[in-house]
From TrEMBL:
Organism for this UniProt entry: Candidatus Woesebacteria bacterium RIFCSPHIGHO2_12_FULL_41_24
Gene: rplO
Family: Belongs to the universal ribosomal protein uL15 family.
Pfam family of the protein (one): Ribosomal_L27A
Domain named Large ribosomal subunit protein uL15/eL18: residues: 76-144
Protein name: Large ribosomal subunit protein uL15
Keyword Ribosomal protein: yes
Keyword set, alphabetical order: Ribonucleoprotein, Ribosomal protein, RNA-binding, rRNA-binding
One GO term of the biological process aspect: translation
Region described as Disordered: spans on this chain: 1-39
Length: 145
């Protein structure tokens, strides 16, 4: 007959539920002062960083206009197309598949390819495209349909 071992899983400590909980009392394991000891901080919060913030790096609609109906298309720069495999048809479906853009926003506002960044892969582009982006795509051997 085989011996059954003990279960070593510990329950998590319930913070701030009295001294008997092991993490009770005045500060309940949060340290003494500061924003983190007083309230929850959002997942997106990065302190005072602005230049390299995650939200700024992503191709999303920001600012006052994001809730207003708009005819302006979403902008996708060439540097974001580097994650696509070589020879891919660049259309809304493939950009949603590779998580470059959100499907609802892309269908609502449309897309336009702009020429910021470097492109090293041959891609077939089936979206509106700027002149500078068109030159870069043709330079690496891609096509525009």
């Amino acid at each position: 007959m085989a011996m059954v071992g003990k279960v070593n899983a510990k329950k998590r400590k319930r913070v701030g539920r009295g001294y008997g909980s092991g993490r009770g009392g005045h500060t309940a394991g949060r340290g003494q002062k500061g924003q983190k000891s007083r309230r929850k901080i959002g997942v997106i919060f990065e302190g005072v960083k602005i230049k390299k913030s995650l939200l700024i790096r992503l191709p999303v609609r920001r600012g006052k206009e994001k809730l207003k109906p708009s005819s302006k298309p979403l902008i996708v720069n060439l540097k974001y197309l580097e994650i696509l495999p070589s020879g891919t048809l660049v259309n809304i479906e493939n950009l949603v598949k590779y998580k470059v853009v959100d499907s609802r926003d892309a269908k609502r506002f449309g897309l336009k390819i702009l020429g910021d960044g470097k492109l090293t892969k041959k891609l077939e582009i089936a979206l509106p495209i700027s002149k500078s982006a068109m030159e870069k795509v043709k330079k690496v051997g891609g096509s525009i349909s």
